[in-house]
Amino acid sequence: MFMHEDILSRVIFSPGQLAINLAEGVRKLGADVTLFTPGPLKVGARNVTADLSYFERELAGRGDSYIDLLKKHPLTFITLARQVQSELIAKAYAMANAGELDVVHIYTNEEDIALPFARLCTKPVVFTHHDPFNFLVKYKSVFPKYADLNWISMSLAQRRGMPEDTDWVGNIYHGLDPDVWAPNYTPKGDYAVYMGRIIEPKGVHLAIAAVKRHNLAHPDDKLRLKIAGKHYAGVKDAYWTEQIEPQIDGREIEYVGFVADQKQKQDLLSSARALVVPSLFEEPFGMVMIEALACGTPVIGLDSGAIPEVIRDGETGVLVRKAADEATIAQGLADAIGRVGAIDRRACRRDFEARFTLDRMGREHLGVYNTLTLAS
Fold it and tell me: Which residues contact 40 (CB under 8 A, 6 or more apart)?
């Protein structure tokens, strides 16, 4: 994604905010950090940006903003963005070779641009990918060729998409600032929430089916489902228009839109009985889960991908077995809704503070950087 102050607040792009948080966290631990981004960002670290003059000239000729071009002509936007990102990677490698950087961390997606030239960098280069490694053809066709480079996984589950002999130099879970996220131990709890992209692999339809099944089985304990996130109806999104939108009635099933504001997100999560994560694909991590835990809100999720690494079954949430039959999954999620009220919300917050803080994430990354530097 194109990291730029004008764009980040208007899109769902967890890796972008994570990159900013990591740079700031490592900087606060005493490291000298340079953050390379296509456009300018408001950060304390040194921010090196790309030459956007030709990109902006193209926008001006079309009368578009960055977001306009992304919506109307995504392929054109991606083409221009990858050109800019290539220039940034070249600049980072050149600065490292000149002795200005000790380690280069390629952190957000488009790592495939940086891979072929990593061995030309005289300082250590380390890679973090933010999807399953075998999720897209453009990644899974090239990543295994470079398994001998330095890789950091965000979950042990994510590693399953890479060769067994991959050079893993760390497994580092994401983190949040505990001072930003406040827990709520006595919510009204009359709704469950789904938060994320509204696409079929995320299983939003299963969350809807689960809540409806729960309400039929427990008429004295009816819940609403609040759905927060972006849909893509503007690009002929049949999943939204055919499977999700017709079920939204504003009462049992409610669509609250894309929640970009952190306080609004916290209010939505902290007042919920549970966050429902019905992902059908192998989640490599799942930021919204630790956001919920930070709020003291338990999580109901399938036992696939990294979800079992983040959620402790029976302690911070309820894991549901993933089955081939979606009706079985929906019933499992519905049963979990009936049990999740027994989870201690204070235990959710304690687990967040023990495993998923920004400080812990920063320290573990700094440890990897120091190890790579000493070994080089």
Answer: 4, 5, 47, 49
CA proximity to 255, closest of 344, 195, 183: 195
The angle, 0 to 180 degrees and rounded to 10, between the axes of the packed helices 287-294 and 345-355 is 120
Burial of 222 (0-12, 13-18, 19+ CB in 10 A): middle
Other Cβ atoms closer than 10 A to 64: 17
Under a CB-based contact definition with an 8 Å cutoff, are residues 22 and 362 in contact? yes
Express each pLDDT in 276-326 by its tens digit.
999 999 999 999 999 999 999 999 999 999 999 999 999 999 999 999 999
Report, at the CATH architecture level, how domain 5-174+358-375 is classified. 3-Layer(aba) Sandwich (3.40)
Single out the residue of 39, 51, 50 nearest to residue 5, CA to CA.
Answer: 39
From residue 138, give the alpha-carbon distance in Å to each of 111, 172, 187, 235, 311. Answer: 10, 24, 44, 22, 31
Question: How many angstroms separate the CA atoms of 122 and 104, rounded?
Answer: 10
Report pLDDT digits (tens) over 200-225.
Answer: 999 999 999 999 999 999 999 999 99
CA-nearest of 285, 342, 282, 350 to 318 is 342
| Closest to 29 in 3D by CA, of 12, 18, 44, 17 | 44
84 vs 2: CA distance, rounded Å: 9
Q: What is the pLDDT of residues 117-128, one digit of tens each?
A: 999 999 999 999
Q: Which CATH class is domain 191-355?
A: alpha beta
CA triple 190-184-359, angle to 5 deg: 135
Task: Name the H helices within 190-230.
Answer: 204-217
Query: What's the confidence (pLDDT) of residue 92?
Result: 96
